[in-house]
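Issue 218. Parser rejects a valid record. Input:
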Amino acid sequence: MITRFPSVALVAASVLLTGCGGGALAATDHASAPTPASSSSASPSPSSEISAEAAARQLPGVGPKTLGRIPAATEQVVLVTGRGANSPVSSLALYERTDDGWEETVSWAAHNALRGWSDHHMAGDLRSPIGVYSLTDAGGLLKDPGTKLSYDHGSGFVSPGTGFEGEPLAGSFDYVIAINYNRRPGTSPLDWTRPLGSSRGGGIWIHVDHGGPTHGCVSIAEPHMKELLRTLDPARHPVIVMGDAAALGH
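Output the parser choked on:
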């Protein structure tokens, strides 16, 4: 059963402070660490009994250190591979775990943050965080397109103004998937809770591409967002593996 989050009207005018890496002004900080995507916190499923070597070969460019952070129970991986450490251009592919290993089902062009990637993301650095993060919650200005993820449909998902290349941002938050970096899983993407503190940023999402770099998020075309939302299944413990190609190769 899909959870419907209550409306978050109080943050409607401030969504740009929380969405796409703008969490520096978040109102609430917590000392506890976020819940990471970690192999130590999940039990293996029958279909996960494949060798690490086989899985690594079928997640292109993913090295053993990164692979080891994918929970054993995960059966869906969104793999975002950046063109370079300082590049805003990337690709997004969805992999499904099968009895024979990982199988790519779709692959699309994507954008990431203006200045590329960071393994220690900070609010305002205009870099996307490198890592492996779970995907549990979604939302958007438009109604639920048929996702199994918890979905918050509300007017808070607005993005006025223009992007770094002068492109309009309207519609960027028609659909979003919250990346569980420095946030509390199980809440609306608009939730301002920042377990690592506001200085570490937040509001890192997958959202609709506006034709240019983001502040910290990953973006893909709107039809692809709808397809991704309809495909991700919380019962399959989806995660996103994201970073520049060199970082992911470790």
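Fixed in the parser; the record now loads. Residues 86 and 116 are 4 Å apart (CA to CA).
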